[in-house]
Amino acid sequence: MDLSGLDLSRVPAHVACVMDGNGRWATARGLKRTEGHAAGEEALFDAVEGALELGVEWLTVYAFSTENWRRPTEEVRYLMGFNESLLVRRSQELNEMGVRIRFAGRRDWRVPKRLIRRMDESIALTRDNRRLTLTIAFNYGGRAELVDAVKDLVADGVEPSEEAITARLYDSEMPEVDLWVRTSGEHRMSNFLIWQAAYAELVFVDTLWPDFRRGHLAAAVREFQDRDRRFGGLSS
Ligand code: IPE
Ligand code: IPE
Ligand code: MG
């Protein structure tokens, strides 16, 4: 990977990525949309390897949103099976790479039990790894996450505060997002990590997700390093 122009002492600790454009990638090749999802697997693993090389500590990827249930049944069913098979086939490899696998999202009745079992197995298998935490946002919606957090807050009888809400998100240990990337040229958040990314640097990449490789990640980090993060204050 080309690390030129990168300051490895200022790599974002938490990178979030909207893996978008699978359907368009497939359609442009005369393939079924689902074949675009399948092609996205290589992109994901290349991004994970890139994150490891760069020293990114947290990588969170959007795999299925609470809004994606609106898609045709066949595509939804494919995505459930595909994610299950990906965990079966590749959890061990991620484990050997030192990746800790976690999930963020609602575990409601619509998510197949077998997939939930695979999720729990990969969490258990990789729980002691610390090189990189790969969080797969599945049946994830930022608004749903906030509703769930506020429900807990009310049930606990706790006074609302930013800390109290953060502590009740799907993963209370997840740090704020530093770099938030979306592929495929779409310029919207689509409900991804809306709380955690409140002060993230947003980078939009035209590449469709199946074509995304670690070099694109490095380029996004380069762009991140050129930004001036002020957090409401003044430049340092
Ligand atoms: C992203 O690719 C993957 C999921 C939403 C699961 P899309 O399926 O949204 O691809 P486009 O945006 O239609 O090209
Ligand atoms: C966001 O992409 C969800 C995932 C990548 C999993 P979408 O393709 O579903 O978002 P919209 O519909 O373009 O906003
Ligand atoms: Mg899309």
Give a description of the structure.
By secondary structure, the protein is of the alpha/beta class. The chain has one domain (about 10-225): 3-Layer(aba) Sandwich (Undecaprenyl pyrophosphate synthetase). About 40% of the residues lie in helices and about 15% in strands. The chain has seven helices and six strands, in the order E-H-H-E-H-E-H-E-H-H-E-E-H. It has helices at about 20-25, 35-55, 75-95, 115-125, 140-155, 160-165, 215-225; strands spanning about 15-20, 60-65, 100-105, 130-140, 180, 200-205. A six-stranded parallel sheet has the order 3-4-2-1-5-6, with helices on both faces. Strand 3 (about 100-105), helix 4 and strand 4 form a beta-alpha-beta unit. The longest helix is centred in the middle third of the chain and has 24 residues, at about 75-95. The two termini are about 30 Å apart. Bound molecules: 3-methylbut-3-enyl trihydrogen diphosphate (2 copies) and magnesium ion. One 3-methylbut-3-enyl trihydrogen diphosphate (IPE) binds near residues 19, 20, 24 and 68.
